[in-house]
What does this fold into?
Amino acid sequence: MKNTPAQISRLRPLTARAGLLGIGHHVYWGQFDGLLDEMHRKLRHVKGLIESHGVEVAEFGLLDTAQKAYDAVSKIQAADIDILFVDMVTYGTSSTFGILCREIHVPIVLVALQPLPAMDYPNGTTYMQLCNDDFCSVPEFTGVAIRFGRRPPPIILGHEKNDPVAEAEIKSWCRIAKVLHSLRTARIGLMGHVLESMLDMHTDPTAVTATFGPHVVLVEPGDIFKHYRDPAPGAVEKWKEQILEFFDTPDPKSDPLTEKLTASDLDTAARAAVALEGLIAEKNLDGLAYYYEGEPGSELRALVTNLIVGNSLLTGAGFPMCGEFDLKTCIGMMIMDRLDIGGSFAEFHPIDFALDSVLVGHDGPHHINIAASKPVIRSLKKYHGKPGSGAGVEFQIKEGPITMLSIGQKADGKFKFVIAEGESIKRPIPPTGNTNTHGVFKPDVRTFLKRWVAEGPTHHFALGIGHHASDLVEIAQILNVDYAVVTPVESKL
It folds into this structure.
């Protein structure tokens, strides 16, 4: 179909490395023939489930004595894992868990997937019970975690026989592992300065590294300008073709600031995209937050005010980009992208009191892969509130559930997640060359907006599809970041 949006492939595949081990009780193996083999089968089953979600698994065997657990610690620490799954294959004493709880400082998730949905009671045996005793020692383990001053580990609880709840939880934790891997290994560029007087935008790069993990690469405008000034032969034409294939270029409608995409604006947008690619490769970046104005009438101003088209395509490819120097929201967009739910750069626009919704969008980077239809480019005669002119991107995100994440900062300097779930509704949007989507939130738009701002968010937020507040809460708890969930959440927190 003509209006169906194309999907952009990722610049780099999502990845994570999980540790996996089983817990059992050594006394059982001599008592019940075949039980140890069944335990290893169960461990292989869980390994396959994790690997099916694109996560590499480092396996540490079956720990059935305290000494084996102590011996495993150095191997687990050396494996550079993002998460540790502990498969509760049968009852095991907490001496096998205590030292892991004390020494392993990545998230630990207990997996209790018994083979049967229920025991075959008329034919039940002790052997059958031990094969399905996955939950038996979970209270012992969580109690030990609390005694050790650690957060009790979350639990994936279910069975092997077509259990969509357990399967969804494994998938969710694999996505969270990818978030954690990206955050601790990312290089996020920061170029320019805060847009004058936006006091909520100021962010200390050291605090970002301390809390989330990525290195903040300080980028000079000249670092990208050199790629704009002298693009590789044929690269600009290639980008022009990609832009015209990916976007519609309709005639203007009601807004006198807009016009049909001009050849000049297309050329500038393509050259800016080439420059972005060159910068990303040279600095080995995984994201970029920027704002710069340049001298009026200069080539540098033309470049730094025309990154919108390129950064929208790159954001869709898994490279989050934020205008207005918003490093915090760049982190939020990366989190959402690694959860594979999008992550658009957004803020609140006018409220529709008649329909009880609010427009959410921005004049900059949105995640193209969550567009409801083929996105549009319009030439803008001026960018309202900012210098420059050029191509602007316009589209709505997909209808259905949405999740919002704003990362604010408190008076003590610590970060805070402000989270909400809502619905994206297909309703008319203004043809202004900006992205906009109607967001509907419980209990009503007035109450929601008052509750949202009361939690101290940055005025921008990352916008994704689906309801994933529970995942964001888990990430906040892992990172030891305060959080507030503003709307009712159906999924378990």
Observations:
- The mean pLDDT is 94.
- Residues 164-185 form the longest helix (22 residues).
